[in-house]
Specification:
Order of helices and strands: EHEHHHHEHEHHEH
Number of domains: 1
Pfam family, one: Cytidylate_kin
Helix content: 40-55%
Number of helices: 9
Largest sheet: 5 strands, parallel
Domain Cytidylate kinase: 3-202
CATH topology: Rossmann fold
Binding site for ATP: 7-15
Main location: cytoplasm
Number of strands: 5
Distance between the termini: 18 Å
CATH superfamily: P-loop containing nucleotide triphosphate hydrolases
Bound molecules: cytidine-5'-diphosphate
Family: Belongs to the cytidylate kinase family. Type 1 subfamily.
Length: 213
């Protein structure tokens, strides 16, 4: 079973994807981490994120980078959104994600283009959203708990800028797949979001079974 979870920054897609992976006993991949690792590598090597060739060179990042806490920072998130707009960067990371999604037994992946590009054949697709204000509040609290002193207004502005860039790029923009179920977590607790996500996945599996008859 392949489960695709997409949505904008701090919508709750990672939380939901992890819980679904636990519930169905499937491996999970946070694909945003791959773009964040490219971004952190661009920064470390002092490359130019606006140059496609520079960003592509960083796609061959050291696997240890994936565990670097710096990946969580807002700056790396912004930089990830810049480098991820280059079609050749997306192409360089495509096979790895497709392989993960299509491994025997299935997987849960979360990102921006899982239901549309990485696994259009997924058995269940969720598109997770929440208002920009609520997402900024969540991300701000998260950054503060990791010692950051960034302001709420700054986080909100960054989230809006990233939403805009991710949704308007020409290759694999952030978009809800036609056959995805919408999960608005704005006014849901984590527990309620997870419960609703499982219900939606079960609904999609039941629908798939009927369609196969
Ligand atoms: O956790 P958050 O939603 O803030 O960010 P993320 O999922 O780690 O993604 C960071 C950036 O990587 C996003 O703003 C996107 O530009 C990019 N990304 C992407 O283009 N495609 C994906 N499948 C995942 C992330
Ligand atoms: O992966 P994404 O960036 O979409 O979001 P996340 O990392 O799953 O969630 C961002 C923050 O919001 C985390 O600190 C979650 O614990 C929190 N959250 C929440 O407060 N309420 C929800 N219904 C979902 C997530």
């Amino acid at each position: 079973m392949i489960i695709a979870v997409d949505g904008p920054a701090a919508s709750g897609k990672g939380t939901v994807a992890k819980a679904l992976a636990r519930h169905y006993n499937l491996p999970h991949l946070d694909t945003g981490l791959l773009y964040r690792a490219v971004a952190a590598t661009v920064r470390r090597l002092e490359l130019d994120p606006s140059k496609e060739a520079d960003a592509v060179a960083a796609c061959d990042f050291d696997e240890l980078t994936l565990a670097d806490p710096v990946l969580r920072s807002d700056e790396v998130g912004q930089l990830a959104s810049l480098v991820s707009a280059h079609p050749l960067v997306r192409a360089a990371l495509l096979a790895r994600q497709k392989r993960f999604a299509h491994q025997p037994g299935g997987a849960v992946l979360d990102g921006r283009d899982i239901g549309t590009v990485i696994a259009p054949d997924a058995d269940a697709k969720l598109f997770v959203k929440a208002t920009p204000q609520i997402r900024a509040k969540r991300r701000h609290a998260e950054l503060q708990s990791h010692g950051s002193t960034v302001s709420f207004d700054r986080v909100l502005a960054d989230i809006r800028a990233r939403d805009q860039r991710d949704a308007s790029r020409s290759t694999a923009p952030l978009a809800m797949a036609d056959d995805a179920a919408l999960l608005d977590t704005s006014f849901l607790s984590i527990e309620a979001s997870v419960e609703r996500a499982i219900q939606l996945v079960e609904g999609q599996r039941a629908r798939n079974k009927v369609n196969k008859l």
